[in-house]
Amino acid sequence: MALHETRTIQLKNGDSIIMRPALVSEAEALLTAFLEILPTSPYILSTAESAARKTVETQMKWITDANEDPKGALIIAEHQGRIIGITNMVAFKDSKRSHRAGLGMSVHHDYRGQGLGEALLRRLIEVAQNIEGLSFLELNVMSANQPAFKLYEKLGFQQVGYLREAYRQPDGVFTDDISMSLDLRARPS
Ligand SMILES: CC(C)(COP(=O)(O)OP(=O)(O)OC[C@H]1O[C@@H](n2cnc3c(N)ncnc32)[C@H](O)[C@@H]1OP(=O)(O)O)[C@@H](O)C(=O)NCCC(=O)NCCS
Fold first, then answer.
1. Cys staple from 33: which of 20, 53, 83, 100, with CB 3.0 to 4.6 Å?
2. pLDDT tens digit sequence for 158-182
C-alpha cells in the first residue's frame, strides 16, 4: 500500500473512527469482524458459511499480501478497539490489465448510515490516486444492493456493464450484476 497514514474521522452520530491499514496481528479480529458483518450483508459474494471456513492463517496471508502489494490496499475502520469497517483493492497482476484494480467494502450493520462507508471509499480512492500506473478502480455490485450502488454513484463511479440474473440468492431469487468503474485520472485529487 502506497500510503500508510492513520486518519481519524467523525461519524454523523459523533463517534470517532480510526481508518488505517490492517496489521497482520489483527488477522483474528478481522475474521471476527467478517463473521459479524456477513449475516447482514446478503449482497456480497462471501457468506457467513464461507467465512467460517477461513482460518487465521489465511487472513494473515491476505493482510500481508495487501500490505506488500504496491498496487493493493486493505484499510480498516476501528472504533474502541473493534474493527467495524473494511475496504480493499487489488489490481490485476497481468501486464495488460495492471492499470485496473477491483475493490470490496463492508461496514458493520450497527455503524451503517453514519457516513463511514463514504469515508472509507473516499480514503481508498485517495490511496488509489497516489499509486503510479493505476487508472481505474472497478467493482461489481448486485442490482438489489441500492445502498452500495448509490454510494458508488455518489463518489463518481459510472455504470459500465450489466448482466442479468448473474447471482442466485439462497432463497432462489436472482439478482442482476452492475459493473462500475471510476477513472482515477479524470477525478480531481
Ligand atoms: C454499502 C455500505 C458499505 C454503505 O456504507 P454506509 O456506511 O452505510 O454508507 P454511508 O452512511 O457512508 O452513506 C454514503 C452514501 O451511500 C448511499 N447510501 C447509504 N445507505 C443507503 C441506503 N440505505 N439507501 C440509499 N442510499 C444509501 C447514499 O448515497 C449515502 O449518501 P447520503 O448520506 O448523502 O445519502 C453498507 O451498507 C454495507 O456495508 N453493506 C453491506 C456490505 C455491502 O453490500 N458491500 C458492498 C458490496 S458491492
1. 83
2. 999 999 999 999 999 999 999 999 9
pLDDT at 5 (0 to 100): 84
Mean pLDDT in the chain? 95
Closest CA to 16 of 94, 98, 114: 114
Q: Which domain holds residue 50?
A: 7-137
* Closest among 131, 103, 130 to 117, alpha carbons compared: 103
Question: Looking up cell 480493499, which residue turns up?
Answer: 88
Q: Is the CB of 41 under 6 A from ligand 1?
A: yes
- The x, y and z cell numbers of residue 47, run together, are 457468506
Q: How far is CA 145 from the centre of its chain?
A: 14
| pLDDT one-digit tens code per residue, 71-81 | 999 999 999 99
CB of 118 shorter than 6 A to ligand 1: yes
What is the rounded distance in angstroms from the CA atom of residue 8 to the CA atom of residue 5? Answer: 10
Residue reference for cell 452492475: 178
Let me know if residue 82 belongs to a domain: yes
C-alpha cell at 141: 455490485
CA 51 to chain centre: 16
CB of 29 sitting under 6 A from ligand 1: no
Say how many Å lie between the CA of residue 146 and the centre of ligand 1. 8
Question: Does 144 fall in a domain?
Answer: no
Does 127 fall in a domain?
Answer: yes
